[in-house]
């Protein structure tokens, strides 16, 4: 049973990989957009920060679920 708990926690933590990739892609696209239209930097930065915050929140949720799996399913 402890093996399945460890596997479940590992899968839950994998959301961090998706969040990291998503934030990296979003940042690269935002830099490209700012390079093409410097006058729109304010709007692009606001959208980038909101998107990064939401992506990071999913990684934190995955981490919390992993901790809950480990602590409560022992």
From TrEMBL:
Intracellular or extracellular location(s):
Cell membrane
**Entries under Gene3D superfamilies matching the protein:** F1F0 ATP synthase subunit C
User: Keyword Zinc-finger, does the record have it?
Assistant: no
A Gene Ontology molecular function term of the record = lipid binding
Occurrences of domain V-ATPase proteolipid subunit C-like (ranges): 7-69
| Stretches that traverse the bilayer | 6-26, 47-73
Q: Which InterPro entries match?
A: ATP_synth_csu_bac/chlpt, ATP_synth_F0_csu, ATP_synth_F0_csu_DDCD_BS, ATP_synth_F0_csu_sf, ATPase_proteolipid_c-like_dom, F/V-ATP_Csub_sf
Pfam families referenced in this protein's UniProt entry, alphabetically = ATP-synt_C
Where on the tree of life does the source sit, at the highest rank? Bacteria
GO cellular component terms? plasma membrane; proton-transporting ATP synthase complex; proton-transporting two-sector ATPase complex, proton-transporting domain
Signal peptide (UniProt feature, chain positions): none
> What is the topology of this protein in the membrane according to its UniProt annotation?
Multi-pass membrane protein
Q: Tell me which UniProt keywords the record has, alphabetically.
A: ATP synthesis, Cell membrane, CF(0), Hydrogen ion transport, Ion transport, Lipid-binding, Membrane, Transmembrane, Transmembrane helix, Transport
Q: Which residues make up the annotated site Reversibly protonated during proton transport?
A: 56
Q: Give the protein family.
A: Belongs to the ATPase C chain family.
Record function comment: Key component of the F(0) channel; it plays a direct role in translocation across the membrane. A homomeric c-ring of between 10-14 subunits forms the central stalk rotor element with the F(1) delta and epsilon subunits.
Q: Which protein are we looking at?
A: ATP synthase subunit c
Tell me what organism the protein belongs to.
Velocimicrobium porci
Q: What is the lineage of its organism?
A: Bacteria, Bacillati, Bacillota, Clostridia, Lachnospirales
């Amino acid at each position: 049973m402890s093996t399945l708990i460890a596997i479940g926690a590992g899968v839950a933590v994998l959301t961090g990989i998706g969040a990291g990739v998503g934030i990296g892609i979003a940042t690269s696209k935002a830099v490209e957009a700012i390079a093409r239209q410097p006058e729109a930097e304010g709007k692009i930065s606001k959208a980038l920060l909101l998107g990064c915050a939401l992506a990071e929140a999913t990684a934190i949720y995955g981490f919390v679920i992993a901790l809950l799996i480990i602590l409560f399913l022992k």
